[in-house]
Amino acid sequence: MNKVIRxxxxxxxxxxxxxxxxxxxxxxxxxxxxxGARQTLxxxxxxxxxxxxxxxxxxxxxxxxFVSDRSPAEFGxxxxxxxxxxxxxxxxxxxxxxxxAPAAHKLAAEIDQPGPTSAADDLSSRAAG
Length: 129
Ligand SMILES: [Zn+2]
Fold this sequence. Notes:
Strand content: 25-35%
Helix content: 10-25%
Number of strands: 9
Radius of gyration: 13 Å
Mean pLDDT: 85
Number of helices: 3
Bound molecules: zinc ion
Low-confidence stretches: 112-116
């Protein structure tokens, strides 16, 4: 990856949208594992580093989410050509309902084998629902 790809773009490219249009990082909520601050992905600082888009806590604690286009050796949400990995739960508002995307490492703990594809299907179906 040689440019910043935001999570909102990953969702769009994967064909996942809300009834009223594409997702917006400004309306996707997560929190920081270090300071606990709730923030939207739009509030987090975004940069390209080591071929990944990295969202850094708005308080500059640490990175809170990542977008990569590598085949996922590590767990995460595989969405189209990209993998999204979040350190804390992510919440999206879909048709007035809050949809939760659990932190990627929780998914790995819940299932026997890390299954990015099934995780993506799950997220897709939740977003579509
Ligand atoms: Zn923080």
